[in-house]
Amino acid sequence: MATDRYAAERAVLGDDALKRLRQARMLVVGAGGIGSEVLKDLVLLGVGYIEIIDLDTIDLSNLNRQFLFQKQHIQKPKAHVAKASASAFNPDVEIVAHHANVQGKEFDVAFYQSFDVVLSALDNLATRRYVNKMCVAAGVPLVESGTAGFLGQVQPIRAGHTECYDCTAHPTPTTFPVCTIRSTPSTPMHCIVWAKNWLFPQLFGEDDEAGDAELDEAAKSGENAQELENLRCEAHQMRALRTELNDTPHDAACKIFAKVFDVDIQRLLSMDDMWEQRTRPTPLTLAAAREDTHAPEQTEALKDRRMLSLADTAQLFLDSTEALAKRAQSSSVPLAFDKDDADALAFVTSASNLRAHVYHIPRKTQFETKQIAGNIIPAIATTNAIVSGLAVVQALHMLAERWDAMRMVSMARHPARAFTTFPPAPPNPACGVCNDMYLVTDVRVNETTLGDVLEVARKPTSEGGLAYDEDAEVSIADGARILYDPDLEDNLGKTLADLRVDVGTTLSVVDEDAKKATVQLLLHAGDAKAPQVRWPGGRAEEVRARRVVPKPASDSESDVEAIEAPPPRAAVPSHGRKRRASDAGVEVPAKRKVSDTTDAPQGSSEDAAIVLD
Ligand SMILES: Nc1ncnc2c1ncn2[C@@H]1O[C@H](COP(=O)(O)OP(=O)(O)OP(=O)(O)O)[C@@H](O)[C@H]1O
Ligand SMILES: [Zn+2]
Q1: Helix residue spans in 418-487 (DSSP H)
Q2: Residue 432 covered by a domain
Q3: Which residues form the active site (predicted)?
């Protein structure tokens, strides 16, 4: 008799729930630490159809916690490998993988609406906010999750009923993405992490023999031979230099300088596709660094708060490398970074600043470096696994429409109470994302003019318009770019294509008097020249029900005029002159920021205010 892989699940969830799971469609955004765990959980549960999106490729540093990936997958797209690895767990599940940026235009509101639940497993604020906004626009439930060291959090979001991700302000995370550390840093933090977590242990910490053996094994499998060979070569060179540090510390320190700031950078530069979207680094020789004795003007009295010249930074690197090498030689245990160890801090400060210089990134003082280096939080596989499980539980509640069962969950390293759960709060009336109205708008960008869009804004709802009064001061913007306002009429005759507005763009129609909510037109390719406005999914009632401010009883059910304005946002100075269309090409700050949350109050719950990675 064939075994039923779902027997246990059926016993726990029941027949109906299992059937629903088998028919469910879920989207996982991000295939990193949390995303690969979530994917594995969903596949094992037997969710019928899953799509996964990730823009990145697999890095060596991912392998300690992203268990769908192995050595032979280095440099392959995370989404594709995650699909291949997870598919093997359950052949009943269909997975579609996208190696792409989730902010790409192909992932429009209709795409989101094709899913029952979206699970966000991202590592940055901007993309989290974007996915949140798309889910609110599409009216699709979202499970947001994040971890920082031993802390974790899961937030179920149901548009119009619960807080969205943007209802509370989020501090800029002090944690960091590790995968960009080895080759493509873009912030001072990346450089500091590289110096502290990679270079320091390579030279003075635990010797990584095992890592090299693993590289040998991966090379045997024939995958990514060239990059694996490079990594192995780098590891061997570093080990040789580490040995040399014992005998001739000064010469070895100079060679290490040449290797990490010049030779290795030249090797990376030869990989052209790596630099298509990024600024190319500039290799730095010791001789060139020594020539640059210019120190920025500064008034700081304390030495560690002053910015050193490049020459002094290079000297600090050589001195601290020599000092640490001597200590490592006489120490019975490998050295570990300690921000209060002067040599270690000098090493990390100088190495990270030299790397920052190479990558055209601002440098940091020793004082700043100490603060940043002391704050780095490692990603922990167990936290990711637990948070992923909690996220999937929320997704199951959503799928079963057990809305009352949804819980925010905060996880902390607390012996008495590891988890704190509470029902999600209602939407914040000051949240731009929750207050804005989202309408899918069919256009033909080569024929539809901005005037056509304005006409639709003025038309009554019964004729498919937005019902703005003839005398209402309306503006139309593409992000921060204002295309039309009462002082800027030159663009009205231009097509959307002329204005560099493509399908996939969101145009914001803003009522200057703040009497109506901002309307977001999600542009979609249509058949007619005149824009056709549709409520997402044709579910007008549902969308209307999502309004934060209750509708007055007298308003007609079918009238968009019933959309009340959110609480007034920042006052807008009026313009003294008519602006020309040529002005419009220039990015100007939006008069009223659309969906801006900077004025949103801080999270109402202390528990909810953890920094998400
Ligand atoms: N705009 C985006 N589109 C698609 N995927 C994204 C986007 N932004 C981030 N991601 C993905 O989200 C995932 C987040 O996973 P995680 O936090 O574990 O980061 P990581 O890069 O795998 O690990 P680490 O940053 O700790 O090295 C990453 O795989 C990253 O590529
Ligand atoms: Zn909100």
Answers
A1: 432-435, 450-458
A2: no
A3: 179
Region at 60 (left for phi over 0; alpha for psi -120 to 50; beta for the rest): alpha
| pLDDT at res. 560 | 33
Is residue 349 domain-shared with residue 447, that is, in the same domain? no
Residue 540 lies in a domain: yes
pLDDT at 451: 94
Cα atoms in the Cβ-side hemisphere of radius 13 Å centred on 106: 6
Domain that holds residue 287: 188-373
Give me the number of domains the chain comprises: 3
DSSP 521: E
Q: Residue 483, Cβ neighbours under 10 Å: how many? A: 24
What whole-number distance in Å separates Cα of residue 180 and Cα of residue 389? 27
The answer to the question of residue 593 being in a domain is no
* pLDDT of amino acid 212: 59
pLDDT of the residue at 516: 74
State the pairing for strand pair 437-443/532-534. Answer: antiparallel
ipTM: 0.97
| Ligand 2 centroid distance, CA of 120 (Å) | 16
State whether 142 and 97 are in the same domain. yes
Is 179 one of the catalytic residues? yes
> Does residue 182 lie in a domain region?
no
Query: Do residue 273 and residue 390 come from a single domain?
Result: no
Q: C-alpha angle with apex 388: 387 to 389, nearest 5 degrees?
A: 90
pTM, two decimals, is 0.65
Amino acid at 184: T
Residues with Cβ within 6 A of ligand 1?
A: 30-33, 35, 53-56, 61-62, 78, 101-103, 122-124, 127, 177-179, 379, 613
Low-confidence spans in the chain with pLDDT less than 70: 1-2, 172-180, 207-228, 231, 298-301, 375-376, 536-613
- The model's pLDDT over 346-394, given as tens digits with 9 standing for 90+, comes to 999 999 999 999 999 999 999 899 888 876 677 889 999 999 999 999 9
Q: What pLDDT is attached to residue 504?
A: 86
Taking the CA of 434 as reference, the closest ligand is 2
Predicted pLDDT of residue 23: 96
What CATH number is associated with residue 235? Answer: 1.10.10.520
Are residues 517 and 492 both part of a single domain? yes
Instruction: Starting at the earlier edge strand, list the strands of the sheet with 151-157.
Output: 94-99, 49-54, 25-29, 117-120, 142-148, 151-157, 408-411, 419-422
